[in-house]
Amino acid sequence: SFADHREHILQTAKALVEDTKVLVTGAAGTQEELANAAQNAVSTILQLSEAVKRGACSLGSTQPDSQVMVINAVKDVASALGDLINATKLASGKPIHDPSMQDLKESARTLKEMCTSAAAAAGTTNTLYGQRALHRQPLINHGILSA
């Protein structure tokens, strides 16, 4: 069932948020640190994509809207990550007041919002005859949403 996949999806979304923080910090570091941070974030988004795909498949053909919702959410996260990586490359080595640094902050904020939305989609996906299986509290417990 989807519930079996939910915890892994939530943990991976949280890991991606942490990778995002390292990636943004990497803009002030060396090219090697930046490359490693980007590589880790890409690895995590691939893990998240796979976890979401497995979860969507577990929903079965009786819940196509839920399948589409969670898959679209992870697509949005992947797109936002690509934007963040590009913004990080542009901001790398620039002074803190450079406009590219503001773009970097905005890209990071957008990615965090997309991760939150993906986690919420996973958390609210119906798994048993239309009943809501998960509410906000587990998202708060995982540090994805604030109380």
UniProtKB/TrEMBL annotation:
Keyword Acyltransferase belongs to the record: no
UniProt-annotated location(s): Cytoplasm
Entry keyword annotation includes Cytoplasm: yes
GO cellular component: cytoplasm; focal adhesion; plasma membrane
Domain Talin 1-like rod-segment: 5-119
SUPFAM superfamilies per record: alpha-catenin/vinculin-like (SSF47220)
InterPro entries given in the database record: Alpha-catenin/vinculin-like_sf, TLN1-like_RS
GO biological process: actin cytoskeleton organization; cell-cell adhesion
Source species, domain of life: Eukaryota
GO molecular function, one term: integrin binding
PANTHER family from the UniProt entry: RHEA, ISOFORM B (PTHR19981:SF1), TALIN (PTHR19981)
Protein's name in the database: Talin-1
Organism annotation: Zeugodacus cucurbitae
Higher taxonomy: Eukaryota, Metazoa, Ecdysozoa, Arthropoda, Hexapoda
